């Protein structure tokens, strides 16, 4: 069946650990017009990437002409590509993610080793703690603390600055709480610490500081220094998971730093298989460009432009697609 010229071919893909399922519709929306392709997710003797192979076969079926392997796929007939993938899931389970360093406030290097002390099986005598994802820890000499709660944070800030500690630096946090800055990090010291880690070959960094969810300035400073040094990926906890608890924020930052480089590498290879690459839906709309937009399913079941897909939100991408 020829694809609809108005809408183009819509392709949905579920890339699992064993099999990859691809469904193509010519734009009619009718189930009877669907073409379904099932193939092995790993079959290097026949193809390099299963989703690309599935798309090639679907387009060959719809157009009636064979599209050769290894030739960049023309996206002019494709309306959209939507995909769920277990790339991040498998990398996490098999511990095949990126080598990362965790940056925390001084005195909290073992926060993820200690965890929250939860005991799902409280009477189990043989406790096995999951391994941490990071290889190195950098403790940054910085500290902020929260003042007592007040209904009017601005008035509270003025009162404690004027009467209790005249020389203290008190600011309003993003959560409108009064934040006392006890110690600002030294740029030169932090740069030296990060440089030592960089020289060891580590290129991905997770940053989680105390109260970073409401006072992100110190995390942002570390992120800037890491980028200037040359780290390929920087995960800042206040951007990923702006919540109060330190352990969940640090866990999220580590997961993102550990998995995002793997995700980006896969997505880059996938995009390279198309003529002109793949663009996000927003860019396509702004530029009025023809061709495919590509969206990937996140752990919550929502779709995100392929360029915005990250490791933290990709852990359950495949299962969510099922």
UniProtKB/TrEMBL annotation:
GO annotation, biological process: glutathione metabolic process
Domain of life where this protein originates: Eukaryota
Ranges of residues in domain Hydantoinase A/oxoprolinase: 249-321
A cellular component term, taken from the record's GO annotations: cytosol
GO MF terms, alphabetically ordered: 5-oxoprolinase (ATP-hydrolyzing) activity
Residues covered by the Hydantoinase/oxoprolinase N-terminal domain: 11-229
PANTHER family from the UniProt entry: 5-OXOPROLINASE, 5-OXOPROLINASE RELATED
Protein name: 5-oxoprolinase
Origin species: Penicillium atrosanguineum
């Amino acid at each position: 069946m020829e694809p609809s010229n108005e809408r183009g071919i819509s392709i949905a893909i579920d890339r699992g650990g064993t099999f990859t399922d691809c469904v193509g519709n010519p734009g009619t929306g009718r189930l009877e017009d669907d073409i379904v392709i099932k193939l092995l997710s790993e079959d290097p003797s026949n193809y390099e990437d299963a989703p690309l192979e599935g798309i090639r076969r679907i387009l060959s079926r719809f157009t009636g002409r064979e599209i050769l392997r290894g030739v960049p796929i023309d996206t002019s007939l494709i309306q959209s590509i939507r995909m769920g993938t277990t790339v991040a899931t498998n990398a996490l389970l098999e511990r095949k993610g990126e080598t990362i360093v965790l940056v925390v406030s001084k005195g909290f290097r073992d926060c993820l080793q200690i965890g929250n002390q939860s005991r799902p099986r409280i009477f189990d005598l043989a406790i096995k703690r999951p391994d941490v994802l990071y290889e190195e820890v950098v403790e940054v000499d910085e500290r902020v603390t929260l003042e007592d709660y007040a209904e009017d944070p601005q008035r509270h800030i003025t009162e404690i600055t004027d009467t209790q500690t005249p020389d203290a630096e008190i600011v309003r946090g993003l959560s409108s709480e009064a934040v006392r800055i006890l110690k600002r990090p030294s740029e030169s010291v932090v740069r030296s610490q990060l440089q030592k880690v960089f020289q060891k070959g580590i290129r991905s960094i997770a940053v989680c500081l105390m109260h970073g969810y409401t006072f992100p300035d110190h995390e942002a400073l570390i992120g800037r220094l890491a980028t200037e040094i040359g780290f390929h990926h920087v995960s800042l906890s206040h951007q990923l998971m702006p919540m109060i608890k330190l352990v969940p924020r640090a866990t999220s930052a580590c997961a993102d730093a550990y998995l995002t480089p793997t995700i980006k590498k896969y997505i880059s290879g996938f995009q390279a298989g198309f003529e002109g690459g793949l663009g996000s839906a927003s860019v396509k709309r702004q530029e009025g460009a023809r061709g495919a937009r590509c969206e990937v399913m996140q752990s919550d079941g929502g779709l995100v432009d392929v360029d915005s897909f990250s490791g933290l939100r990709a852990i359950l991408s495949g299962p969510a697609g099922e």
